Task: inverse folding
């Protein structure tokens, strides 16, 4: 039976659990995620765990925060005057924004506080600072 190797396109089901017990799925509605092994679309530790698997096989992988989304960085929390928001945006806590950064880059941020005059955004990845336990099942090797 074929085993996953570097460069293969794979389709997996993958559920995650944080150390506080919260669970999440990588795909909406518990569906599958497709990616190329070694292409960098997934966490490297998760990609490595899939190498060598055969269709139908499942594994549990613990990814420490330093190999997942890194530590939380309080410097990535920023206060933005509401007057600087584009017209027509009604900010709400939990809303995700794409904000311009230096060198034409974009930062994804989450609104964590809203007042009449400003919003506070968190530019950390939502899973930053978390160790993650993944349960991954290889559904299919799309190409060999």
Result:
């Amino acid at each position: 039976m074929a085993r996953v190797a570097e460069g293969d396109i794979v389709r997996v089901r993958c559920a995650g659990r944080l150390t506080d017990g919260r669970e999440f799925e990588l795909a909406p509605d518990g569906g599958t995620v497709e990616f190329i092994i070694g292409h960098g679309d997934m966490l490297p530790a998760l990609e490595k765990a899939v190498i060598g698997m055969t269709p139908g096989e499942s594994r549990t992988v613990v990814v420490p925060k330093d190999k997942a989304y890194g530590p939380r960085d309080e410097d990535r929390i920023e206060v933005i005057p509401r007057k600087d928001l584009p017209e027509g945006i009604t900010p709400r806590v939990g809303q995700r924004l794409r904000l311009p950064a230096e060198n034409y880059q974009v930062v994804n941020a989450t609104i964590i506080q809203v007042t009449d005059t400003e919003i506070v955004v968190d530019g950390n990845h939502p899973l930053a600072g978390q160790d993650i336990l993944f349960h991954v099942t290889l559904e299919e090797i799309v190409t060999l």
Notes: The helical segments are 44-50. The mean pLDDT is 90.
